[in-house]
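hey so i finally got around to running the thing on that chain from the lab meeting. sorry it took forever, my laptop kept dying and i had to restart like 3 times. anyway pasting the input first so we r on the same page abt which one it is
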Amino acid sequence: MLDINELNDIPSWDEKLKTDGSPIYIYGMGNGCEKVLEMFEGKGLRCEGIFTSDDFIRDRKFHGFPLISISDLEASRQNFSIACAFGTHLPEVISRIRALAARHTLVYPDTAVVGKGGLNKDALLQRKDDILSVYELLCDERSKKLYTNLLRFKISGNISYLTDSSDSEELYRELIRPEDNEIYTDIGAYNGDTVSEFVEAVGGKYKHIFAVEPARRNYSKCVKNCTALDNITLINAAASDRDCEGVFSDGAGRQQTIASKGTPVRLIKVDTLLKKTGCTYIKYDVEGEDIPALMGSSYVINKFQPKIRTGIYHRPYDILDIPLLMHRLAPKHKLYIRRKDCLPAWDTELFAIP
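ok and heres what got predicted. didnt touch it at all, straight out
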C-alpha cells in the first residue's frame, strides 16, 4: 500500500541541495536550463555555474554564466552538487549521469516538459486523496510500484528511484495486444514512426488507420513515410476539446504544442473525426494537450470502448490528473503505467484497456 507519510518524509530536491551545502552547478543548457534557473529563483537557490558534456561545448556563455565541461569542472572543484536540466534516452548519456550521481549530490528538478513551472512537494501532498485514488485504480503490481517510485522521484529528484523501472515495446504490446482488425488512431503521429510500429505489430493487417499530426513539417514527413500504406487517412490538425482554428508553436521535433504565438492550425475533436467510423485503439502523444484531447474524445471512448495509450509526463501533475480523467471517461477500463528508459521520468505512459 502506498504510504503518504513515507512520501512526506522524503526531502524535496531543493531541500537536498540546501542540506548538501556545496556549490550548485546546472548540467545542461537551453530551455531546460532556463526552467531550472527559474525554479532556483523561486526556491532561493544560487547557481554557481553551468556545465555540459565534454563534447557539447558550443558557446562560451549561457544566461551570463561561463560554460565549462564536466572534465574541467571536476578538475577544478572537488565538492559540488548538480541539478540536471535536460532529458535523454541515450544509454551512454544515462550511464554518464548515473556515474556523476555516484560521485556528487545530483538531482533532477521536476520541471514541466511543456510550459512553465514545476512540481511542488507541498502542493502534491495536499492531493492525498487523488494520490491514493490513482494508486487503487492501477491494476497490477508493476504499475503500482512504478507509480510509487515516480512520486518519490518527482519529490526528491533522486534518479535511484528510476532504477529497474523501464519497459520494452514488446511489454507494451502485451498490454495493447494489437489485432489484425484494428481501427487505429494515432494522435500526434509525428513523422509516422508510431504508425510504422503499429503496422509492424499487426503484420500489416488492420482495418484502417487515422494519423493526426499538427506540425506541418512533421505532417509532410508523415505523408511521405506512410504514402505506401493502404486504408490510411492523414489529417493535418491538432486534437483538442473543440473544433476551430488555433495556433501551434513554431519549431522542430516533437515538443511543439498549442500556443498563443506560432502557425495557424486546425483544432479538431476526436469525436468529430471518429463519430461515424469508431475505433478500437487510440494512441495520444500531444505534448501537454493530453487533457483537452481526451475531453474531445469522450463520446468515442464511451461508445466504442477503444484501447488507449497516452503520456502522463508532460506537465508536473499529469501523473494524477490524467489517470483520474481516464477513469471518469472509461470507468470500466483497466489502468496500467509503463515507461521506457529515460532521464528524467519522461516517456511515462498510461494504458487503459477495456
